[in-house]
C-alpha cells in the first residue's frame, strides 16, 4: 500500500513538477556521467537513460554523502540507537534503514529544489524524473556558493549571538549580584524594619492614648477655664467687697456713734465674712494653681505629641523607603526573570545554531576529507599519468629517432626507387625499341612468307595465331 501510494504521488508529482525545471538548468547525459564518474561511480549513459533501482540507490547514497555529509556509519549509529528502544527490533531493521535513507535523500532533494521526491523514485525510478533529479543534484553539487554564503552568514550570526549571550550573561550576573546584595540588605534591615514597625505600633497606640487624653484634658480645661473665669469674677467681686468693707470698717472706726456691743457684733460679722471670703479666695487660688499645673502637663503632652508626630513622620518615611526598596526589589526580580527567560531563549537558539554549525562543520570536514581523498587519488592519477607521459615522451623520442632513421631510409629507398624507375624506364624504352624492331622483323618475315607461300594458308595460319 505504501509503495502504491508513493507511486501515485510520484506520478502526480511528475505531472505537476514541471515548474521545477525553471529553478535549475537541465544537464546533458554526458555531463551527468562525467560528474558521476568524477564522484567515483562507474555509471554509464545507459544507466541514466534506463535507470534501475540499485543504480538510483547508489547514486543517491553517493550524493547524500558528498552534499550533506551523511554516511552509512552515521546512519547506522542512528539506526542502532533508535532500535535499542524498540521491541522486536529484528522486524524493523531493514525497513528502518531504508526509511531513514529515504528521509535523508528527500531532505537533500528539497534542498536541491526538488519538492516532489517520493519513495518510488528510489525503488522504481522514472527515466525523465531521474534525469531531472540528477540535473538538480549536479547543479547543487557544482554551484553551492549560495549555501556557502548562507553557512558563513550562519557562522557570523552564531558569533553575534554568542557575543550577545555573553553580554546578557554578564548583565544577569550583575543583576543577580545586585539582587543578592538587596536580599542581604533586606535580611539585615528586616529586624530593624520589624522593630520600627513594632515601635510604630507602640507609638501609634501611645499617640492614640495621648490624643484621647488630650481631648479629655482639653474638655476639662475648657470646663476649668469657665470655672476660673467665674472664680476670677467672684474673686474680683469679693476683693471689691473686701475693699468696700474695709472702707466701711474704717468709716465705722472713725465714727463710733453706735454702741460698742453693736459695733463689736458688726465687726465680728464683718471679720467672719472676710475670713470666709479669704478662705474662698485661697481655695480659688489653689484651684487656679492646680489648673496651671494641669495646663503645664498639657503643654508637655503637646510637646511629646509633636515629638511623636515627628517620630511618626520618620517612621512613615522609613516605611515609604522600605516599600520603595520592595518595589525596586520586585522590579529587579521581574527584570531578572525576564533576562533569565531571554537568556534561556538565546541559549536555546545558540544551541540550535551550534548544532547547525557543528553539523555544517562536520559536513565541511567530511567534504574536505572526501575532497582530500579525491585530490590524493587525482594526484596519484596525475603522478601515474606523469610517469606514463614521461614514458610516452621517451617512446616518442625513440620513435622520432626511429622515424628519422626511417625517413632517411625512405629517402634512400626513394632514391633507389627513382634510380630503379629510371632504369625501368630505360629498360622499357629498350624493350619498346626491341619490340618495334621485332615487329618490323616479323612484318618483313610475314611479307616474305606471304610472297613465298599460298595466301589462304597464310590467312588460316594468321587466324589460328590470332
UniProtKB/TrEMBL annotation:
GO biological process: attachment of mitotic spindle microtubules to kinetochore; cell division; kinetochore organization; meiotic chromosome segregation; mitotic spindle organization
Main localization (coarse): nucleus
Residue ranges constituting the Nuf2 DHR10-like domain according to the UniProt record: 272-386
A UniProt-annotated Pfam family: Nuf2
InterPro entries per UniProt: Kinetochore_Nuf2_N, Nuf2_DHR10-like, Nuf2_N_sf
Compartment(s) of residence: Chromosome, Centromere, Kinetochore; Nucleus
Superkingdom assignment: Eukaryota
UniProt keyword annotation of Glycosyltransferase present: no
GO cellular component annotations of the record: Ndc80 complex; nucleus
Residues in Kinetochore protein Nuf2 N-terminal domain copies: 23-158
Recorded coiled-coil stretches: 151-220, 281-318, 343-399
UniProt keyword list: Cell cycle, Cell division, Centromere, Chromosome, Coiled coil, Kinetochore, Mitosis, Nucleus
GO terms, molecular function: protein-containing complex binding
Family membership noted in the UniProt record: Belongs to the NUF2 family.
Name the record gives this protein: Related to Myosin-like protein NUF2
Organism: Pseudozyma flocculosa
Amino acid at each position: 500500500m505504501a509503495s502504491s501510494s508513493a507511486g501515485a504521488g510520484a506520478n502526480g508529482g511528475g505531472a505537476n513538477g514541471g515548474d521545477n525545471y525553471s529553478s535549475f538548468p537541465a544537464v546533458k547525459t554526458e555531463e551527468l556521467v562525467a560528474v558521476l564518474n568524477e564522484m567515483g561511480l562507474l555509471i554509464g549513459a545507459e544507466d541514466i537513460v534506463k535507470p534501475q533501482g540499485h543504480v538510483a540507490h547508489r547514486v543517491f547514497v553517493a550524493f547524500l554523502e558528498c552534499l550533506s555529509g551523511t554516511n552509512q556509519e552515521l546512519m547506522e549509529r542512528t539506526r542502532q540507537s533508535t532500535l535499542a528502544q524498540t521491541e522486536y527490533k529484528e522486524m524493523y531493521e531493514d525497513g528502518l534503514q531504508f526509511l531513514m535513507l529515504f528521509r535523508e535523500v528527500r531532505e537533500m532533494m528539497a534542498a536541491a529544489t526538488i519538492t516532489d521526491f517520493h519513495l518510488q523514485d528510489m525503488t522504481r525510478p522514472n527515466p525523465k524524473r531521474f534525469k531531472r533529479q540528477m540535473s538538480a543534484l549536479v547543479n547543487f553539487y557544482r554551484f553551492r556558493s549560495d549555501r556557502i554564503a548562507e553557512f558563513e552568514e550562519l557562522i557570523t550570526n552564531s558569533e553575534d549571538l554568542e557575543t550577545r549571550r555573553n553580554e546578557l550573561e554578564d548583565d544577569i550576573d550583575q543583576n543577580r549580584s545586585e539582587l543578592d546584595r538587596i536580599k542581604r540588605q533586606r535580611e539585615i534591615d528586616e529586624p530593624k524594619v520589624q522593630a520600627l514597625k513594632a515601635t510604630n505600633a507602640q507609638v501609634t497606640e501611645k499617640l492614640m492614648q495621648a490624643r484621647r487624653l488630650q481631648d479629655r484634658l482639653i474638655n476639662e480645661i475648657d470646663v476649668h477655664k469657665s470655672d476660673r473665669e467665674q472664680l476670677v469674677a467672684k474673686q474680683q467681686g469679693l476683693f471689691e467687697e473686701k475693699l468696700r468693707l474695709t472702707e466701711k470698717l474704717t468709716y465705722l472706726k472713725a465714727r463710733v456713734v453706735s454702741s460698742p456691743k453693736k459695733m463689736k457684733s458688726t465687726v465680728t460679722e464683718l471679720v467672719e465674712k472676710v475670713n470666709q471670703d479669704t478662705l474662698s479666695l485661697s481655695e480659688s487660688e489653689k484651684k487656679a494653681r492646680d489648673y496651671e499645673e494641669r495646663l503645664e502637663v498639657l503643654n508637655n503632652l503637646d510637646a511629646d505629641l509633636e515629638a511623636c508626630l515627628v517620630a511618626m513622620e520618620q517612621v512613615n518615611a522609613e516605611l515609604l523607603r522600605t516599600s520603595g526598596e520592595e518595589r525596586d526589589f520586585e522590579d529587579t526580580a521581574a527584570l531578572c526573570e525576564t533576562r533569565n527567560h531571554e537568556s534561556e531563549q538565546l541559549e536555546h537558539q545558540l544551541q540550535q545554531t551550534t548544532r547547525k554549525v557543528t553539523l555544517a562543520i562536520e559536513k565541511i570536514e567530511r567534504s574536505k576529507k572526501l575532497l582530500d581523498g579525491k585530490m590524493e587519488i587525482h594526484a596519484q592519477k596525475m603522478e601515474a599519468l606523469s610517469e606514463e607521459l614521461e614514458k610516452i615522451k621517451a617512446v616518442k623520442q625513440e620513435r622520432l629517432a626511429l622515424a628519422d632513421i626511417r625517413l632517411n631510409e625512405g629517402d634512400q629507398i626513394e632514391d633507389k626507387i627513382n634510380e630503379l624507375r629510371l632504369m625501368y624506364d630505360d629498360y622499357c624504352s629498350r624493350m619498346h625499341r626491341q619490340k618495334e624492331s621485332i615487329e618490323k622483323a616479323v612484318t618483313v618475315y610475314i611479307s616474305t612468307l606471304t610472297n613465298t607461300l599460298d595466301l589462304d594458308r597464310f590467312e588460316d595460319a594468321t587466324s589460328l595465331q590470332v
